[in-house]
Specification:
Blueprint (H helix, E strand, L loop, with lengths): L1 H20 L3 H7 L5 E6 L6 H5 L6 E6 L9 H13 L4 E7 L3 H6 L8 H14 L1 H5 L4 H22 L1 H8 L5 E7 L6 E8 L17
Length: 213
């Protein structure tokens, strides 16, 4: 219980500091949240969205899972995307990976991890599609970091392939999906130059039309 007591004390000081600096902070926060950004990131404890982006509570909606995946059978992730897009009316979806990701590293090998192996299979599929490039990188760290980048790019495509995102575009809602990666060693975000703003940027097989056969 000592560990929890410390957390409660930290929380009390945090709340007091916020009230001291801005007496109306929690009152405004309790009324509504109006973020413009949805962050889909890794569960890694070293990658906290608000701190990295320099944003306050209420300014970024967050979903995190192992290796920042957008899987079409993951109802939790899809529900977050739908709520963010259709209810909160966010304008930007950020898929953010990070170099040295443990999940990506695990997917590069053959060791079994139990239930997690089913999740990591999604990353192994990406490795298989880019095997020639990845196998050509002799240094394991560099290979993992490149797969971290390729994984982000794939998840951007996955997010754009959802009916949620495409229906937003069809309705005229301004929505951009971005791919970023974070460096643990320097605390900096890097733009992977992957930005999708409409379905015309997608492969035709993934473009959805209302009522189309």
């Amino acid at each position: 219980m000592a560990e929890l007591a410390k957390l409660f004390e930290n929380n009390r000081r945090w709340a007091e500091d916020n009230l001291r600096n801005d007496p109306g902070f929690f009152g405004r926060l309790a009324e509504q949240q109006t973020p413009k950004f949805l962050w889909i990131g890794c569960s890694d404890s070293r990658v906290p969205a608000n701190h990295i982006l320099g944003l306050k509570p209420g300014e970024v909606f967050v979903h995190r899972n192992v290796a920042n995946l957008v899987v079409h059978t993951d109802m939790s992730c899809l529900s977050v995307i739908q709520f963010a897009v259709e209810v909160l009316k966010i304008e930007h979806i950020i898929i953010c990976g990070h170099y040295g990701c443990g999940g990506v590293h695990a997917a590069c090998g053959s060791r079994q991890f139990g239930l997690l192996d089913n999740w990591l299979r999604n990353i192994k599929d990406i490795y298989a599609r880019h095997r020639a490039e990845l196998d050509g990188i002799a240094d394991l760290k560099n290979r993992v970091d490149r797969l971290c980048e390729l994984n982000v790019m794939e998840q951007v495509r996955n997010a754009c392939h959802t009916t949620i995102v495409q229906n937003a575009w069809l309705s005229g809602h301004p929505l951009s999906v971005h791919g970023l990666i974070y460096g643990l060693n320097d605390g900096l975000l890097r733009d992977l130059a992957v930005r999708v703003t409409n379905s015309d940027q997608l492969d035709t097989i993934y473009r959805l039309r209302v009522g189309a056969a």
